[in-house]
Structure formats: C-alpha cells, structure tokens
Amino acid sequence: MSNFVSSPGRIPSDAAQLLNSQTSSSFGRDNSTPAQPILYSEDLPPHLQLQQQQQRAIAGRRRQIAVPKVVDVTGEKVRESFETFIEEFVDPEQADDDWDGKIYLAQIEAMKTYEYSTLYVDYQHLLSRENGVLATAISEQYYRFSPFLLKGLHRLLKKYAPSLLHTSLLHNTEETVSETSTSSQANERVFQISFFNLPTVQRIRDIRSNKIGSLMSISGTVTRTSEVRPELYRACFTCDLCSAVIEGVEQVFKYTEPTACPSCENQSYFTLNVSKSQFIDWQRIRIQENSNEIPTGSMPRTLDVILRGETVERAKPGDKCKFTGCEIVIPDVSQLGLPGVKPQSVKESARGSELSSGVTGLKSLGVRDLTYKLAFGACHVASMVNKAGGNEQLEVDLNDQEVFLTSLSDAEVLQLKEMVKDEHIYDKLVNSIAPAVFGHEVIKKGILLQLLGGVHKQTVDGINLRGDINICFSAAGLTAAVVKDEESGEYTIEAGALMLADNGICAIDEFDKMDIADQVAIHEAMEQQTISIAKAGIHATLNARTSILAAANPIGGRYNRKLGLRSNLNMTAPIMSRFDLFFVVLDDCNERIDTQLASHIVDLHMLRDDAIDPPYSAEQLVRYIKYAKTFKPRMTKEARDFLVTRYKELREDDAQGLGRSSYRITVRQLESMIRLSEAIARANCTEEITPSFVAEAYDLLKQSIIRVEMDDIEMDDEERPTGERQSQPSERVPPVSISYDKYVSIMNMLVKKITEDEKNGGDGLRSIL
C-alpha cells in the first residue's frame, strides 16, 4: 500500500504501468482504443486524493485475478433459433412464383427504406415452427430472453441492412458503416421487437405476480396519457477521479450509475456524458378495465402501461386497446414520504457547529417500508375496433362489409341473410330492444336508431358533420379533466365519460342535476363531437364521437301538462336543441294498461326468461346492427323533396302557434330528420333512402317534439257580463278539458265538414252555425 502513495499530482512509475495496462473498460470498451491518461488534479480535496489512491491500489490487485464472464447458454440458443426463424420463415399464403414468401426479410428491407426501428413478429408464426418450442420459451421468459432477441436482430440488420444501424449514417455506403463501427453509441439506433396476435388476452383483474416477466396480452380502456418524454436508455459516464469513459450502462427502471469504475474502482463520483448516451421516446398511460369485464359491485381496476420507441402516441384517452408485452415490477417511490408532508430538498450548512446533535428517530427522516407495484411494459399496441353495440371507425371503406362477413361462420351468415330478407325486420328489431320492458314502443324505436346511427360526413373545408343521434328522456368526469401525476408532478389529461364512450353510446342519468357550467362544457361534445382542453398549460382537442342517451326528471318531480317541455326541465335552450329526440314518460292511470303491465311484471318474476320471447336474441341483434352499420345510404330525389315538404310543415305549425316553443323547430331538427332517415335505411340494409323512411322519421320526430309541447285544451264557458249580479254565489265548477290529440281530431273534422259544405254550394261555417 505504501508503494502507491505519492505526492498530489504525481503517479509512481510502477503504479502507472500497472494502471495503463488495465485501462480497458469491462463495460464494452474496445481493447484497441487507447486508454485515457490518468492524472491527478491539484484541485481535488486531500480526502478525495487519498481515496483515489486507495481505490487504484485495490483495482490493481483485483485485475491480477481473471474473472470469467457468465454466459447464458440457453439465451444464446434462443438467439440462434430466432435468427434462423427470421431468415427461413416462409408464409405459404403469400409465396408464389415471383416471390419466395420470406416476409420478415422483406420487412427488414422495408425498415431500411422507411427508416423504421421496430420489427413486428406474428406469434402464430412462432408457434408453427419447431412444435412451438421457441414460442413457448419466449412467452414464459420474455424478460430474460429479450436482450438476446435484440442482439439477434442487430446481427441480422448488420448482415442485411447495415446502413440502418446508425442514425447519422443513413445515407452512407456499407463500406463506410463497417469502417466506422467503433463510433459512439449515441449514433446507434435503438431497435425493438414487437410481438402480436397472441392466442389469449388477459384481463387486468386476473394479473398476478406469477406472470412477471412472461409475454402476454391485456385489454383495457385508456383513461390517462402522459406527454412523450426522452428516457435514458444506455448511458455513458465519465469518472470524476480518473476521467475514464464508461459506455453501455443499462438503465433499470431508474437512473443507474456504474457500480464501480473499471480503472480506479470509484463508486460514487460520475458525470453523465449526454452527447454519448442513448435516449428513447417514453410515455406512460393508464388503462382501466373494460366496462363489460367489471364484476357487479366492484371498482374498476387500473394499471400503468409503459410505451417506448415507435409505440408512443398509439393510444388516446377513451380508446379501447390491446397491449402485448410483459408484466414488470417497479419500486413504488410515492409511498416513501410522510403522509401529508411535501418532500423538499434541504441544503446542509457548511458550518459543523450549526448541525444538530443526536438522532431524533427514523420517523423524522420520512423512512417507510419500500413497496413495489405492478406495471406493464408494452411492445405492441392495437386498437380494438370491433366493439359490441359501438360505432365502427368513421372512415369506412367498401371492403368492410366483406371483411365483417368473412369473420362470421356459415350458419351466422345464412341467419343474417334471412333477417335482411324479412319484410318486417324493422318492427322485429324494435321489439327485440329491451324485451323485459313493457310498452314504450316509440322510445325503443329511438334507441334502435341511436344504435344504428346516421352516416358521418365531412365537408370540403374539413368540417365533420355528426351522424350520431342524441336522445333525452324527459363537467369534469363527463368531458375530461387535467390532473397532476402523483409521481412526476406533471399535468396529464384524464378522460371523462364522453371520451371513454368514444365510438359508442354514453348514458347519462340525472342530466337535469348538472350545473349550467357543466352543461356548457358538453356543448362542443354534442355537436362537433370533440372536446377542447386549455388548462394548466395543456392545449388539446380530443375525440368524443359518441351518442348521448340522457335521462332527466321534471322540475318538482312531476310533469306539469300545462307547461311546455322547456318549462318542465332544468336545461338550457342550446342543450335542448342539440338533442334529436325527446320522449316524455308519463304514468297515466289506465285500467287496461295497468292490468297488462302488472301481468307482465308478475310473469317476469314467475317465469323469468321464459316470460319474454323476443323475435331475435341479443347476440343476433348485435350481429345485425354491426352488419347494418356497414351501409352508407344516400338520399334519393323523391325522398329529398318529401323531406323538404315535411320540414316546411313543421315550421308552419311552429309559426302559427301550434308549437309552444319556437326555438325547437330549427335547421338542427332538419338534420335530425336526415340522421333518423339514414338510420332507418340502415335498419332495412339498403343503400337508398326512400320517402317511406323519411315519413317514419317525420312521425317519430313529430311525436317526440310536438306532442309533448301541447297542453290540454280547457273548454270553459263564456264569462258572464259584469252587469249581471247573482243573488247567491254559485259553486265553483271544475273546468272541462280535453287532450290536445282530441282537440286536433275535432278541429280536423270541423274543417273537413266546412270544406265539403262549401264545395256543395253551402255557406260553410255560417250554415253549420
């Protein structure tokens, strides 16, 4: 030990020879690279100089003992098998005389052409090779073999596409790449292998610790996304004591420094060399269980998903996605602090006399048991397009109908064709909606048309015209919210109900209980089908392509027939104008209807499912709706003229005072009639809208708008002249009233009678009186 001690700034000759012969780094440094000169700095404090000398002495003694590297033999075999699979696999469905069908070699060429960094591997192709041995090994120990798979991919790229390995040498020749193979790791491209098409999909609730590190697929709804940030992938450090450069330090879920300097055994003083380090895009999203997977009475489970590289920004809040990757365990650092105490950094005073003496206990230091939490590292993200009862994507091509039919069995296709040929398919579909609910045929029609929806259109200027139908039975959490991440402290967007129901239907109860400010927040979502956020420095426009099915209670709990619909609901006029259909559910006393309703409810309790016999089952109804939504019906000239005539009638009735609220009949109601006509045409699986479909839409709209706007007509006697005085006060006689429907029927009969009398030469109204 005494032989290595010298004055500051100088190195003994024997120690210098020993260190200069052992300066090659065990972290990937090339032996041919000249070693960095090891010099002491006179600016270092004396205690660091002494520590440096001691560490150099220990390093010299350790290097005299050769330590063999540990080699994972199984991992190397997996790498060789994977390389053979990529080079030799042939897809029999695509192979022909002009092409050998080696799809993965062709994909490597495409990666070279389009500068991609991800190789997509079909898991079913792995299962078809070697009796699935390679697929089983990767599936069961994916986290262990992932570095070997990436190493195999690097070897293949070096063989078939060497110009893709370095980002700064994309346009150079292969000879130049080979000559500069020892360039800095910062120029090396980070590659990924993405597996997809796994046979099973796990639910979030079923994930357990015995699946950590294994390859699996999970599904869920994206509720929160973070912004894309750079992540330190492989770091390059410089030793502060001997200036040695240490490359290729892998980062394991946190900022990781080298365990020790290979030259001087320094374990604490390192500086990150950013220019020579590798970074990769990183994003964290949070997914929630799908609504159909949550058990009754349970809270939905959530899970954080980590995306890297080209998989970032593949999922948006509200999307239902399938993620393929492995389950990982990361430290839960948010549990280390004291509850209710904000963590803050404290600078220690330089004067030792000011330091407090003694230890006050671990509680004051904020020490907690280190816990871990589960996360999911995804290598592949796929959107789940086929959703039961939900709308398909807006951009639908003509081949979607053929693709949907090919996904069905022969028996299902035959059954679907028989349903399409049925002349009374529309009425049977209506009767199949909520068969356990007695009556309310008009409301069931509206819900069926809402499920089918209209045709989404886009103007030349790029403005989207919604095709979804909003129905109403007489805020944050509903649209979207900006929340602060508990770990990073950054603000992220958390999806609300409208975003989670994207391409589906959002059912909102107690709609009238919302504040006016909350109702204003959904104006844009109901008409433009987007949600704009401008909070906490985040400016974003998110999709909310959903139909709204809302239920509201009248003011005071009872519907006042003497008042209009607007006076009975605590809703603003702009919100009401955005609904296509309104239905008022009244509980009128009717002996015949009450008897039928009571009998229906009792039969449900006695016979359960045998008490109802809908024309089609729920599976048949869902299958038919999916098929019907592949149609894009267009308006014929006859239907167009009929639609214009009916709209003029609605406007005339409104102008003559037959409608209580003139704000109701606007151009939005014309668009509602168009959407309803398109939905009825879809229900009949036809590409043309006929006048009969427009008539059905007009009747449905008129029943939902006009009927509820009318009061009962009171038939009072004329008032007595004020000069007449009664000898004694008469008893108050209750006014006689008739419904608006009877009033209109009597009025039409009188008009018809007067018209006939005038045609026969009579005096019309005078002759009747």
UniProtKB/TrEMBL annotation:
Residues 21-40, 715-734 are annotated as: Disordered. Pfam families: MCM, MCM_lid, MCM_N, MCM_OB. It catalyses: ATP + H2O = ADP + phosphate + H(+). Gene3D superfamilies: 2.20.28.10, mini-chromosome maintenance (MCM) complex, chain A, domain 1, Nucleic acid-binding proteins, P-loop containing nucleotide triphosphate hydrolases. Keywords: ATP-binding, Cell cycle, DNA replication, DNA-binding, Helicase, Hydrolase, Nucleotide-binding, Nucleus. It comes from the Eukaryota. It is found in: Nucleus. Residues 425-601 form the MCM C-terminal AAA(+) ATPase domain. It is an enzyme of class 3 (hydrolase). The keyword DNA-binding applies. Acts as component of the MCM2-7 complex (MCM complex) which is the replicative helicase essential for 'once per cell cycle' DNA replication initiation and elongation in eukaryotic cells. The active ATPase sites in the MCM2-7 ring are formed through the interaction surfaces of two neighboring subunits such that a critical structure of a conserved arginine finger motif is provided in trans relative to the ATP-binding site of the Walker A box of the adjacent subunit. The six ATPase active sites, however, are likely to contribute differentially to the complex helicase activity. Belongs to the MCM family. Component of the MCM2-7 complex. This is DNA replication licensing factor MCM6. It comes from Candida albicans.
